[in-house]
Structure formats: C-alpha cells, structure tokens
Amino acid sequence: MRHAGEDEIQRVPDVGPVVAKNVAAYFRDPGNAAVVDRLLANGITWPAPAPVSSDAKLAGKTFVLTGTLQALTREAAEEAIVQLGGKVAGSVVEENALRGGGNGRGFQTQKSPTIGHHGARRGGVHEIA
After folding, report:
1. 62-128 — its CATH code?
2. Which of 59, 81, 86, 104 could form a disulfide with 67 if both were Cys (CB 3.0 to 4.6 A apart)?
C-alpha cells in the first residue's frame, strides 16, 4: 500500500479516485512514512480480514442501512451482513442489492425504488439471514 499508485489503490473495493489520491499522497509524505515506520517497528499489525466463502448467503451483495434499526444496533446489523458475505455501503447506488430500513428512513428510502432496489423492513437483517 505504501508504494502503490493511485490507479492501484483505486482497485480496492469501494475506493474511488478522491480517496485513492489522498491515500497515495499520505504515503508520499516523508513525515507520514516515518510515523508508519515507527508503528511497524513497535509491532503494530493489522489482522487479515476473514475470508468469505463465495457460496456465503450474501456474497457479492451490497446493503445500505437507513433510519433507526429496532432489533439490532447498526454495528450489529453491519457485522451480521459482513459475516454472511455481504458488504455495507453508506449510500444508495444501482449496485446495492438491498436497503434495510428502520424508523426515520429518509432520502435513501425514497431513492431506492427509482433504481430498482428491494427494501427490508422490521427484522430485515434477521429475515435475510
């Protein structure tokens, strides 16, 4: 990552040109590189993400959670989706598979049907799983 160019960084899922440009610039800065070197020298590591089976129930699907969720915290719902192989996004785009909404749903809910999304209401994540 430290030596990757913007194009290579942009190949990471959900990373667009703005984030790629800023990440590349961060690592080009000598001061930032020195901080990373010190962290690594002191044993800081990041665990590898758990592999997700391609036959996982939600593999390849992206979800958007909107509103106040009743049965789960937002973090618990996100974790449940990821454990089943799905991804959680922050906004509705055509590639999202499903939008799960609680009370207080707003613009995302209004936008979803116009781009062909299905919505899950109460117990949405539980219903999916």
Report:
1. 3.40.50.10190
2. 104
